[in-house]
């Protein structure tokens, strides 16, 4: 019985077919619908509720950034995974800021795309290595967009977790670095999410980057 219901949104039918083929090979993933653009995606969500939306960015009518923002506002439990050819800073940060939990490039392996769907469904985040690197470079050259004092302050240990998250470490790597359990790391991340009213690791990074709180390296 499939556990993860997926909607694929892309204006290219061949891409939709390929993505559907990739993810449907996993017995726990079911593709429950396809949409040609953001408007069609929202219309689908009015009638049915997938767990994960695989979203292209550049589409006619309503693009992926606009559609992602609408989904995040109206159906916050639905996770959005961007799957696109676009890797420029003018699409990556806006897409993540709009509420996407992950950002993968279409040249990612089938295994990586399936893993991305699973990761965002579980409440984690999924970024292609190139996208993570681009996010770092973009934030380095962008003035902070918000004041750090507008955010609830973190404890010393939460700040240490945030610093390692900015270095691209996984939960397991953060746990090893701080000599704590992986469960403790998840608890710290959960408290940061609650303090800043964000829902995943990507949004923690985007919020911290906007406030100038992290030193990427």
Give an overview of the whole structure:
With 217 residues, this protein is α/β, with parallel strands linked by helices. It folds into 2 domains: 4-138, Rossmann fold (3-Layer(aba) Sandwich); 144-210, Winged helix-like DNA-binding domain superfamily/Winged helix DNA-binding domain (Arc Repressor Mutant, subunit A). The protein is 51% helix and 13% strand. The protein has helices spanning 13-24, 38-47, 64-74, 89-98, 110-121, 129-140, 156-166, 171-178, 182-196, 201-210; strands at residues 4-9, 29-35, 52-55, 79-84, 102-105, 126-127. Strands 2-1-3-4-5-6 form a 6-stranded parallel β-sheet, sandwiched between helices. The protein is globular, with a radius of gyration of 17 Å. The model has no long low-confidence stretch (mean pLDDT 85).
């Amino acid at each position: 019985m499939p556990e993860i219901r997926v909607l694929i949104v892309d204006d290219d039918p061949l891409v939709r077919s390929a993505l559907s083929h990739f993810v449907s090979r996993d017995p726990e993933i079911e593709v429950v619908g396809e949409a040609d653009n953001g408007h069609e995606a929202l219309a689908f969500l009015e009638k049915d509720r997938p767990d994960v939306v695989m979203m292209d960015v550049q589409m006619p009518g309503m693009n992926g950034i606009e559609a992602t923002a609408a989904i995040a506002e109206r159906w916050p439990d639905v996770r959005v995974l961007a799957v696109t050819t676009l890797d420029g800073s003018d699409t990556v940060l806006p897409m993540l800021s709009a509420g996407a939990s992950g950002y993968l490039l279409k040249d990612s392996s089938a295994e990586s795309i399936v893993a991305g769907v699973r990761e965002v469904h579980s409440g984690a985040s999924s970024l292609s290595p190139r996208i993570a690197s681009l996010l770092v470079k973009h934030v380095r050259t962008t003035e902070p967009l918000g004041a750090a004092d507008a955010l609830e302050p973190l404890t010393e240990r939460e700040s240490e977790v945030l610093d390692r998250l900015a270095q691209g470490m996984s939960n397991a790597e953060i746990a090893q670095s701080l000599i704590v359990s992986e469960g403790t790391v998840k608890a710290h991340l959960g408290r940061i999410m609650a303090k800043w009213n964000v829902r995943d690791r990507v949004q923690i990074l985007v919020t911290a980057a906007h406030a100038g709180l992290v030193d990427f390296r």
